[in-house]
């Protein structure tokens, strides 16, 4: 197994570890800065999430640069991304930090686009990620980081950046999904 695929697998293996830190009461204590407090569980989950999310571009870069792109990598990379995002979104809902409707919209868009990509593969086409898809990923990652940080440091000045990034994530997720389907509508069979 090549390096790029090992990095992708590492991202998949981090998913349950991040989830455990978010949802299992390990009672590692609290980090307190003035009136701000965050559990060490959440800090560990945040750091592991950032590491996992940052490997998303790294594995693809290594595979292309070293010319070691494989079918396994093409299958595992988007799967790893979706597993990580879905697990953390569901955990955030369980923790009361994110509305279920937001998680449903984001996860539904991801699986709908995955379905369209599968249709494209059956037709012999490969659908590349669009610039809106890349922006969507960046905004979703930012949203998760802000939510895991409990809106730090913006809570000190009573600025609800958490709400702003949640709405930004929802809007760009919906827009990028619609854009993706419109640009590839020729792949959707329409019966007459």
Automatic annotation (TrEMBL):
<dbReference type="InterPro" id="IPR050324">
    <property type="entry name" value="CDP-alcohol_PTase-I"/>
</dbReference>
<dbReference type="GO" id="GO:0008444">
    <property type="term" value="F:CDP-diacylglycerol-glycerol-3-phosphate 3-phosphatidyltransferase activity"/>
</dbReference>
<keyword id="KW-0812">Transmembrane</keyword>
<dbReference type="InterPro" id="IPR000462">
    <property type="entry name" value="CDP-OH_P_trans"/>
</dbReference>
<keyword id="KW-1208">Phospholipid metabolism</keyword>
<comment type="pathway">
    <text>Lipid metabolism.</text>
</comment>
<dbReference type="InterPro" id="IPR043130">
    <property type="entry name" value="CDP-OH_PTrfase_TM_dom"/>
</dbReference>
<feature type="transmembrane region" description="Helical">
    <location>
        <begin position="163"/>
        <end position="182"/>
    </location>
</feature>
<keyword id="KW-1133">Transmembrane helix</keyword>
<dbReference type="Pfam" id="PF01066">
    <property type="entry name" value="CDP-OH_P_transf"/>
</dbReference>
<keyword id="KW-0594">Phospholipid biosynthesis</keyword>
<keyword id="KW-0472">Membrane</keyword>
<feature type="transmembrane region" description="Helical">
    <location>
        <begin position="38"/>
        <end position="62"/>
    </location>
</feature>
<keyword id="KW-0808">Transferase</keyword>
<keyword id="KW-0444">Lipid biosynthesis</keyword>
<dbReference type="InterPro" id="IPR004570">
    <property type="entry name" value="Phosphatidylglycerol_P_synth"/>
</dbReference>
<dbReference type="InterPro" id="IPR048254">
    <property type="entry name" value="CDP_ALCOHOL_P_TRANSF_CS"/>
</dbReference>
<comment type="similarity">
    <text>Belongs to the CDP-alcohol phosphatidyltransferase class-I family.</text>
</comment>
<protein>
    <recommendedName>
        <fullName>CDP-diacylglycerol--glycerol-3-phosphate 3-phosphatidyltransferase</fullName>
        <ecNumber>2.7.8.5</ecNumber>
    </recommendedName>
</protein>
<comment type="pathway">
    <text>Phospholipid metabolism; phosphatidylglycerol biosynthesis; phosphatidylglycerol from CDP-diacylglycerol: step 1/2.</text>
</comment>
<keyword id="KW-0443">Lipid metabolism</keyword>
<comment type="function">
    <text>This protein catalyzes the committed step to the synthesis of the acidic phospholipids.</text>
</comment>
<feature type="transmembrane region" description="Helical">
    <location>
        <begin position="137"/>
        <end position="157"/>
    </location>
</feature>
<feature type="transmembrane region" description="Helical">
    <location>
        <begin position="7"/>
        <end position="26"/>
    </location>
</feature>
<feature type="transmembrane region" description="Helical">
    <location>
        <begin position="83"/>
        <end position="105"/>
    </location>
</feature>
């Amino acid at each position: 197994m090549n390096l790029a695929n090992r990095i992708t697998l590492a991202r998949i293996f981090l998913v349950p570890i991040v989830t455990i830190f978010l949802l299992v009461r390990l009672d590692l204590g609290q980090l307190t800065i003035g009136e701000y407090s965050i559990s060490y569980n959440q800090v560990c989950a945040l750091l592991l999430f950032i590491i996992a999310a940052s490997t998303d571009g790294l594995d693809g870069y290594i595979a292309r640069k070293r010319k070691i792109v494989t079918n396994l990598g093409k299958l595992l990379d988007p799967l790893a991304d979706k597993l990580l995002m879905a697990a953390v979104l569901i955990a955030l809902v369980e923790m009361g930090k994110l509305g279920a409707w937001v998680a449903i919209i984001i996860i539904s868009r991801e699986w709908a686009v995955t379905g369209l990509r599968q249709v494209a593969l059956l037709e012999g086409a490969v659908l590349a990620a669009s610039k809106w898809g890349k922006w969507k990923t960046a905004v979703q990652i930012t949203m998760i980081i802000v939510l895991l940080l409990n809106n730090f440091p913006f809570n000190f000045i009573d600025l609800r950046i958490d709400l702003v990034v949640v709405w930004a994530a929802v809007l760009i997720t919906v827009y990028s999904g619609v854009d993706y389907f419109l640009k590839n509508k020729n792949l959707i069979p329409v019966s007459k």
